[in-house]
Each structure stands twice: as C-alpha cells, then as structure tokens.
Write a structure and sequence with these properties.
It contains eleven helices and eleven strands. The chain is an alpha+beta fold and 270 residues long. The strands form three sheets. Strands 1-2-8-3-6-10 form a six-stranded antiparallel beta sheet. The longest helix has 18 residues. The radius of gyration is 19 Å and the shape is globular.
Length: 270
Amino acid sequence: MPQHRQHRIHRHPAAPWAELRVSTQTFDCYRAHSHAEYSVGIVDQGCATFHHADGSHPVMARSVVLIEPGIVHACNPVVRQAWSYRMLFIDAAWLHRAVAQVWGRALPCEGLAFLSRHANDAAGTQAVDGFCQPITSDCAASALAAQLPQWIARHARPEGAQHPATVPADLVAAIDTMHTEMERRITVKELAQACAMSDSQFIRRFHAAFGMTPGGYLQNLRINGARRLLSQGMALADAAHSMGFADQAHMQRAFKVHHAMTPGTYRRRR
C-alpha cells in the first residue's frame, strides 16, 4: 500500500487545536520520541508494545493509549504483523484552558497527568473511537470541543508545568539551550560544558533523565517544530531551515524515521 494511503493526516479549520493521524496496515516501527501535544489514540487492528515512562504494556485492537506532552514513548507492532491505529493530537494550551473550565477554574491548568496511560474498558474505547474520527464539519468540530475536555477531565489530574519543573537542576542549562537555540548547530561538548560535566558523564546523565541521548532529544525538538510549521502551511525548505536541519533532505530523512511518512505527506491537507 502506498505510504500516503497507509498514513494520513486529517485537519479541519474549525478545530486548529486538533490533528488526527490514521495509520492503516503498517509494519512501521518508531524510535523513542515525544510530542508537544497531548495524544489520545486507539488501536484498530493488530498487536503492539507500548513503551513509556512507567514501563511497557501490550496493546491490541480496541486498546486506548493516553500520552502527555514531553513523555518519551514508542509503540511498535509485533514482529511481522501489520497493525492499524488512530491518534488524536491535542494542542496543550487549548486543552489546559478547556479542562480548567470543566473543573470550574478561573485560570488554565499548568499541566495534566493522565490517571493511566493505557486502557481497555468498553466505555473508554467507545469514547476515544468517537474522538478519533476525521472532522468533516464545523458542527462536528464544536461537538468534539465540548465532549473531549469533559472526558479528559475525568481521566486526568492537574499537574505542575512540565518545564522547567521536571528538568533536573544539573541539566537545565542544556535543556534551555536546546529549546531556545535549536536553529543553530549545537554540540554535545558545548552542552556538557554548560552543565559542568565531561562529555561521557553528560550523555549518561541525560539519557538517565530523559530516556534518549542529547542528540536524539534535539532532533525530536526539531521534528516537532517542523511539524508545527508544516501544519501551518510553511514550505518544506523553509521549515527545514527554521528548525536547524542541514537541508530539506536532512529533515526528510529524520522526519520519515520518526513518523513513517515524509514531510510532504504530513503537510498535505485533508
């Protein structure tokens, strides 16, 4: 099956805070990564292993997965078995405001933590199946905007801001550099020196804290930034330059490894 049919991205102008990924009959595997958005997904077919900060769990048809921004994870199919799934990505700032309103709070939440990152109960499956449908009208967008925060408010608790509160103090300098200067060339040596560590000590400490190498973390940041720019319609070459990739081909290779689709396929509006 052609890639553009295996992996599809659905957006609707009435819901700029939502993006739906539909992947069908794919064998693709993913490196450990994280997203800037909240993710709510459902498996439609096949079996996979969901790796996340709290451990690893098998997921299968009708399983639900819930992932907060910044949580390193990977969900890969059983060897030689195709699987199908849908994942709804929800803008964090929008969801913080919407859930705060459900809870009767005057100010947006700083963050949310799901009570569980996976579920197989019938009610949850039915709800998420409904949320993970392409939005086809303004009316459908309004219904999702009303129902989704209500459901998440019952399945999450308020949490402190993800950054910088959860960043170990000895790594703050490195994280701040990567988040604010990702468009330029950043070396491990530079980051290690900023944290007063040797290169090897810094790499070990970073991996223990974030579940990925400094290079993997920086590339993940750049790819998430490229996703945001591409979803807004920016040209591929401009997005690559803005996010610090050597060129468009470099971004394409990295994007495909992380998302099993090219940036062009992702950018295409549906």
